[in-house]
Amino acid sequence: MGVEGEPVVQKSIAEQAHAHYDRGVPFEIPLPTRSLYFLLETSARYYPNNIAIDFFGRTWTYEKLLREVNQAAQVLYQIGVRKGDTVALAMPNCPQHFVAFYALMRLGAVAAEHNPLAPDAQIAGQLERNGAKVAIVWEKCASSYTQIVEDGGTVFSVNLSASMPAKYRFALNLPVNKARKKRAQVRADVPAEYLSWDNEVANSRLLAATVPHAEVDDIAVILHTGGTNGVPKSVPLTHLNLGANANQNIFWVWKLHEGAETFWSLLPYFHAFGLTFFLICSVALSSTQVMLPQFDVDAALDAHKRRPISFFVGVPPMFDRLAKAARKRGDDLTSIKFAISGGMPLSREIAELWEHTTTHYIIEGYGMSETAPTMCGSPLTPERRHSSLGLPFPSTEIRLVDPANPSMDVEDGQPGEILVKGPQVFSGYLDAPEENQRVFHDGWLRTGDIARNEDGFLVMADRLKEMIITSGFNVFPSEVEAVFNQMEEIESCTAVGISDPESGEKVALAIVPAEEQEGRLTLADIRAFGEAHLPHYALPKIVELFESLPVSQLGKVLRHTVRDQITQRQGKPKA
């Protein structure tokens, strides 16, 4: 009770969190009023000669990038892409991906980001939901997009080596086995009806200035996710959602210097985490991004030697492997003053290794595709708390509620489902009215995650969803199970996550073979079937055969029991 007998009012989580903010971080952030394209235009105006991209040592200034973007926008405009149209992008991180993204932002079109290594079945479902009639794709995944051409659309193919330095292109074309293998990793034949993106952009004139821009509330990006229950969905994010979250992240790490930072661009653009930090935050700060098409420890450290990194955003296994390799190689990482980990829990061991190696703080962030993606983070101060989700971001409201009654907030210290509201929160999935009704409660997004409030810091307590997080990627058991349940040789199966020091979790599959298949179902059969239907990160790394799966009285598979049994088996030496 209060001093006059009135009940003590519990402070909101945001109010408690504000007491722990770094002194330079505001409680509210300014909201963008224009499209994302103007971030690039502004950087090109004020920092025209700053290096925007370093790709294997070949560089692009902001002035050069802006010109290429307007050439690319003209290419798309000429084939009929207009404001509001959706264009599929399927590339690793490369200059062409950057240019295509901002060309779409200039036109007010929508960039539907796809994993270039996703299986055909997954791509087909995503294209059906987002309705793209045009695609810009890496040669290696070109065959997954032929349906667009068959339906009267246009597909551009991207030659990854076209953006590499001349010495790399020369080496790839040498008539030796090593060069052939390298060339096969980056190049592939494409259907004759595809257009060359690289040639079309290089030979294009600039887009006319009279072409209208997007409004800040227009959709900018579509990301693909399993949402909060594992069913594949498409997440539309507006220029406001993404621009606001970029501002939230930039104000959170407020000591970053405009025009003076170098980002390690190692997370993929098709992932919400990589998209916001590298395609948006880096540009908003007029920074340089040292870009690689895939995460390679030695290539990343070599690039760091050439152009020292000051800001690194990644997932925990990246920090672990880079710190260990740098120590082994004798490389100095002390230039990396700012580091943010996300996508999966950051262990205290990895955090301490990184901080000891770089002599600077690492903090953890929390978010999801639906929040563009960040909603919480630890402060970049001695108050940081490793293994916590952090504090609610500026302009972000968080509640912890009873999952069975989301109108009822839980008391501090008690576990509750995380509900979030803020300018970075999306307004609903594409073509999923029933799911949208389920996932929103009185304007609050239900995350499906359970956490406790500890003086403004959120600490993960459990997951409503049985999601597996492996190397920062979300894998939903239902997605894996749906694939393998198609095999006639399998009677039933369940997927679980098994703790792994390198990736966070491994996907493990427990299988009950069909009666007539006992003794005939092979690991090779299972792997081959999985590779045809699942992205690489979702493939089971562990497969165990069961006579039957443990179930509850209601017949529901007891995943935690399956997980425990597989973990126990893995700990025993093979006979």
UniProtKB/TrEMBL annotation:
Going by the UniProt record, its keywords in alphabetical order are:
Ligase
Q: What sequence ranges are listed for the domain AMP-binding enzyme C-terminal?
A: 479-556
Outline the extent of the AMP-dependent synthetase/ligase domain. 40-430
Q: What's a Pfam family in this record? A: AMP-binding
User: What does UniProt list as this organism's lineage?
Assistant: Bacteria, Bacillati, Actinomycetota, Actinomycetes, Actinomycetales
Q: Name one GO molecular function term.
A: acid-thiol ligase activity
Q: What is this protein called?
A: Long-chain fatty acid--CoA ligase
Matching entries from InterPro entries are given as: AMP-bd_C, AMP-bd_C_sf, AMP-dep_synth/lig_dom, ANL_N_sf, ATP-dep_AMP-bd_enzyme
Specify the domain of life of the species encoding this protein: Bacteria
| Listed PANTHER family | LONG-CHAIN-FATTY-ACID--COA LIGASE, NONRIBOSOMAL PEPTIDE SYNTHASE PES1 (EUROFUNG)-RELATED
